[in-house]
Amino acid sequence: MKPVILAEKPSQAKAYADAFSVRKFEGYMEIQACPIFPNGAYITWGVGHLVELKEPHTYNPAWKRWSLGSLPILPDRYEFQVAKGKFKQFQVVKKLIKGTDTVINACDSDLSS
Fold it and tell me: Where in the chain are the domains?
């Protein structure tokens, strides 16, 4: 299985890909076999957050209108949804990750120095 490198955004994925010989496809790139990746690898990316928490009113219609009395909003189980406009890229990432046993998280660490 080829490893999947997950970058945070397309420009970051391109910067990683610049170090390798790649074939470009819609939503991902394929790294050709090389000393670092003898079987090749895939690079894909998010576009901001691909998934997000569902809105409170999807759990309980009474939570559609915010009020101090309804806080805290604590559903029994949190649910996620694909973010609006990001379904296509989500499907690419999902397919690649399901087809591998190695995912390399190459996203920003969000640590401030």
Answer: 1-47+86-108, 51-85
